[in-house]
Amino acid sequence: MALSNTNTTIDYAFDARHIWHPYTSMTQALPVYGVVSAQGCELTLDSGEVLIDGTSSWWSCVHGYSHPTILAAMQKQLTQLSHVMFGGITHQPAIEVSKRLVQMTSANLTKVFLADSGSIAVEVALKMALQYWQGRNKPQKQRIMTVKSGYHGDTFAAMSVCDPDGGMHTMFGNNVTKQVFIPAPTSKFNEPLNQTDITALENAFSQHHQDIAAVIIEPIMQGAGAMRFYSPAYLVKLRLLCDQYNVLLILDEIATGFGRTGTLFAYEHANIEADILCVGKALTGGYISLAATLCSDEVANGISDSPAGVFMHGPTFMGNPLACAAATASLDLLLQGDWQQQVSAIEVQLKQELARAIDLTQVQDVRVLGAVGVIEMVNNVNAAQLQQAFVELGVWVRPFNKYIYIMPPYTINAAQLTRLTSAMISVAGSIEDSGNKQQFISHG
Ligand SMILES: Cc1ncc(COP(=O)(O)O)c(C=O)c1O
């Protein structure tokens, strides 16, 4: 087998035969597109085609690709200390990123656990909640409550709090812990809390609170499970009930954190505090994997009072210095930059340019919040087919289920954004034009 070490040649045959991609089959390969470089908001394919990126690489690359500040910070760190174990050792890159996280998040969040990825940050948050109640002599509080249509990651505990129908519960049988599910919030972002939601929340707490260690929820935006936004008043009510019934509140800001919905953290729309907070994705500006779980002094003290006496988690690459240096550079760019103005300009433009999609008969709904624009179709789409249509239009948009959506880098310019929104409308319209719904229903 010929091995090429140039990074402009893509060995598609090897890839198809040997390499898993997310959610793919090894016998029925889906098309993949070879990317050789990325700059700003553009991805360059091996064919030489340049695509405008509407995904921020699964919502992480908020400053765009190859940002000189992040690259310089990583290059400096790489030569000084790219990795060292975190057990019994500390280093300034971990301290710097943690200082910023403590300072940026609500005042009650004082303790930082540096995790490897979003799913692991969620695992850590759930373990923190369980150990906390052991330390507070309520070991019966072992279940987690959450809302339907959520998404929190692909590891086992994270899967257990993903949507029970759309998630992966049935595929892994009894290995996925049975948690308590509340109906998904129905009060929309700009609406007050409706009675349906109030009743569902109150019933769930009064029925289950004795067994419940924590509620976990994606604040304001249900991402991969629904691509929808709900009322800040829902979070206010949830916080009140958690306090009333002695239940911890875990906010999963892995998708929403660092400006995506127009506030630095989505919980700011509701002006509430979490007991435990998960961040990831945009933490490093999308340059390398890193996530974090923050908690309050009270949670940390409860864990320390538990029979184990320590928090029981410690992965090999915890606090990786290279990732911490990237994160610190990315957070400084955010803190010193004009992300707020960028995100609000994206929001205005998305609202203007996507509005007309609602007239397409195959479109169910159009919604925008911050730098998130969603066209929800009536039926599930054929993602691979639509992906190809987007590539032909010179953009990178990756639809799933019924959602044709974008979450572009904050640095995208108006002309690039118009290319993305035009492509979304054109592709959504082509589904209508085909006159054949079946053609686009995903069987995957
Ligand atoms: C809200 C939320 N939580 C957790 C995760 C899991 O993160 P990761 O894919 O880094 O494990 C995701 C990923 O999309 C997410 O959107």
Could you characterize what this model shows?
With 444 residues, the chain is an alpha/beta fold. The protein folds into 2 domains: 68-336, Aspartate Aminotransferase, domain 2; 342-376 and 387-404, no CATH class. Helix content is 36%, strand content 16%. It has 14 helices and 16 strands. It has helices at 12-18, 56-59, 68-80, 92-104, 118-135, 156-160, 195-208, 232-244, 297-304, 321-336, 339-354, 383-392, 414-434, 437-440; strands spanning 35-39, 42-45, 50-53, 109-115, 143-147, 180-182, 212-217, 221-222, 228-229, 248-252, 276-279, 291-296, 363-369, 372-377, 395-396, 403-406. The protein is globular and about 60 Å long. Mean pLDDT is 94; it is low at 1-6 and 435-444. The structure holds pyridoxal-5'-phosphate.
What descriptors fit this protein?
single chain, 444 residues, alpha/beta, Aspartate Aminotransferase, domain 2, seven-stranded mixed beta sheet, four-stranded mixed beta sheet, 14 helices, 16 strands, 16% strand, globular, disordered N terminus, disordered C terminus, binds pyridoxal-5'-phosphate, transferase, PyrdxlP-dep_Trfase
Sequence-ordered SSE layout with sheet pairings:
Blueprint lengths: L11 H7 L16 E5 L2 E4 L4 E4 L2 H4 L8 H13 L11 H13 L4 E7 L2 H18 L7 E5 L8 H5 L19 E3 L12 H14 L3 E6 L3 E2 L5 E2 L2 H13 L3 E5 L23 E4 L11 E6 H8 L16 H16 L2 H16 L8 E7 L2 E6 L5 H10 L2 E2 L6 E4 L7 H21 L2 H4 L4
Parallel strand pairs: 3-15, 5-6, 5-7, 7-10, 10-11
Antiparallel strand pairs: 1-2, 2-3, 4-12, 8-9, 11-12, 13-14, 14-16
Helix pairs in contact: 3-10, 4-10, 5-9, 7-8, 11-13
The protein binds pyridoxal-5'-phosphate.
